[in-house]
Predict the structure.
Amino acid sequence: MIKCLLVEDDVRIASFVREGLSEKGFLVDIASSGYEAVERISGVDYDVVILDIMLPGIDGYEVCKITRKRNIKSIIIILSALGDHEEKIKGLEAGADDFMIKPFHFRELLARIQAQLRRKQMEKGIFEDNRYAGIEIDLNANTVTRSGRKIDLTPRELSLLMYMMRNRERVLSRTEITEAVWDIHFSSHTNVVDVYINYLRNKIDKDFEDKLIHTIKGRGYQLKLKPHEP
């Protein structure tokens, strides 16, 4: 699951962006000041930080500089009403990966996030996170297919599938899944992981001979292609 920090003190914009990203399977936290942003970024391994410039406390440029000085590699996309040429240069020099101007279209923001994630994956040598064993996830179109057959998933089911796809063939404990797909404060003593694994299994595996989602007794769950044996 993609973890995102949205640093924005405008409640209306923060709510709009959070809702849109959550629908696409992102786990989104919000910080409303520069100091809160630095504290969160230093304590959580975020994949993406969406950063406003005009913030209470320290501004977005300073947040960006502190983040990079601490060698934190999160993707930083500045989203600001300050959109002249010099402001863009200042943002990129501070360590941002991209710069968008308000007002903006959500689809463009999502496309830029995906482009930066793909770039980061390519740098790590990861190319096929959203394709495996006939499953294809298209976040832009918000669709999931297996062998060309469309599969309807809820946002939480999609987040679970994405996490398992990115950790394919690894055995994932319930605690790992809980912390990645829900948040770190979620109680791991309930059976919610097992419930959602069953939801996902019924949609991903039920109509196919070759099963992908497996229970590893005493350890957790695994996404791995195990061909059907006649």
